[in-house]
Fold:
Amino acid sequence: MHVWLFDLAADALSLDRLRGVLSADERARAERFVFPHLRVSFAIAHGVLRILLSKYLEVAPERIGFSFNAQGKPSISNEDCRLRFNLSHSGSLGACAMALDCDLGVDVEQIRPMTDMFDIARRFFSPAEGADLEAVRLDQREIAFFNCWTRKEAYIKAIGGGLSIPLDSFQVSLLPDEPARLLSNREGDPDSWNIHAFDAGAGYRGAVAYNGARRELIVRRIDANEATKNWEVSEKLRDVSR
Ligand SMILES: CC(C)(COP(=O)(O)OP(=O)(O)OC[C@H]1O[C@@H](n2cnc3c(N)ncnc32)[C@H](O)[C@@H]1OP(=O)(O)O)[C@@H](O)C(=O)NCCC(=O)NCCS
Structure:
């Protein structure tokens, strides 16, 4: 299970290159953002995603075709393709998760002061998660909240159901000293899902969820400018496989 993290920042030349690999639809979506910085973030996130996929698939980034399920989850349009991926972006951070043969979802969130934390928990978390959150020491509550949020998002993104899945219909672990886990779900098969929390850098929380056997998680950082240059996935992963 590979997770690539990148800042949503690029120099002018790299930004041009990243825009150059987008499809006409993606360019049109980027243009619809009112704020210029969101246009740039979108182009970088989707450009880096295409470049990463191109390294795994060994095809030109602009030639990759996507299909979308009814809730908008993208996948590679070639049905024989075993590579699965998911994208997340928050604040100035992007994340792409890649793996073979599993349903996967990734979520990164910028940690920000949440004055309405308990209102959100009451609306979106399960009662047990809400109770866990209230039991957490005050100085760890923000971390516990974003643990819960990212794990829940990663799980619904792995299923691909988006907001059609009631967020209070399943429970994740959130206590800062407990491992990331799906504790219960509607289907009654929480053990067939894995969740890893990962270090997404200062001020961010991250989680990836997927089904099947538990895998080793490798998290790498890549510079969006570097991504546009010539490199191979094996090079970037070499130092972790030694
Ligand atoms: C769309 C959704 C799948 C993720 O939204 P998000 O957390 O705002 O956004 P992220 O950056 O993590 O992910 C967005 C990317 O996921 C992918 N995606 C879109 N629909 C998806 C789906 N149904 N399943 C999985 N991935 C999806 C796309 O690549 C999308 O990128 P794009 O918008 O640039 O095209 C959906 O779960 C959502 O709107 N969630 C918000 C729910 C909420 O209010 N949660 C409260 C706390 S638990």
User: Anything to note?
Assistant: The first strand starts at residue 2 and ends at 7. Residues 42, 45, 71-74, 86-89, 105, 107, 124, 149, 152-153, 156-157, 160, 162-163, 167 surround coenzyme A (CB under 6 Å). The first helix runs from residue 12 to 20.
